[in-house]
Write a structure and sequence with these properties.
Blueprint lengths: L8 H15 L6 E3 L14 H11 L6 E3 L16 H12 L10
Parallel strand pairs: 1-2
Helix pairs in contact: 2-3
């Protein structure tokens, strides 16, 4: 399980390294509990940041569960963005496929 990352370009690189280690393991699934960027700088509120995280998470070969953190949608109101619109963007960008967790 991971969460509250990445908040910076340095953490993006660390997440790439961690992803490599995750891929090498035999895991039933991987969970990210949200906050895939900081809302303080509004980065988590941008489609570009979410799309970059989607590409990063797509490398994980295990079933992957990603929960929306407040930084990706509700905290975006402090930057003048509509939280519901940001949640819709999060879903559009990061919820492209649904896979069953049950073994096949």
């Amino acid at each position: 399980m991971l969460g509250d990352t990445p908040y910076s370009e340095a953490e993006v690189r660390k997440l790439d390294d961690l992803t490599g280690r995750i891929i090498a393991q035999e895991l039933a699934f991987v969970v990210h509990v949200g906050d895939i960027g900081t809302s303080a700088l509004s980065q988590a509120c941008s489609d570009a940041w979410l799309e970059a995280r989607a590409r990063q998470f797509a490398k994980i070969r295990h079933p992957f569960i990603l929960l929306p953190g407040d930084n990706e949608w509700s905290a975006c109101a402090r930057h003048g963005l509509a939280p519901q619109a940001r949640l819709a963007a999060w879903r559009k960008i990061l919820c492209r496929t649904v896979a069953a967790l049950a073994p096949h």
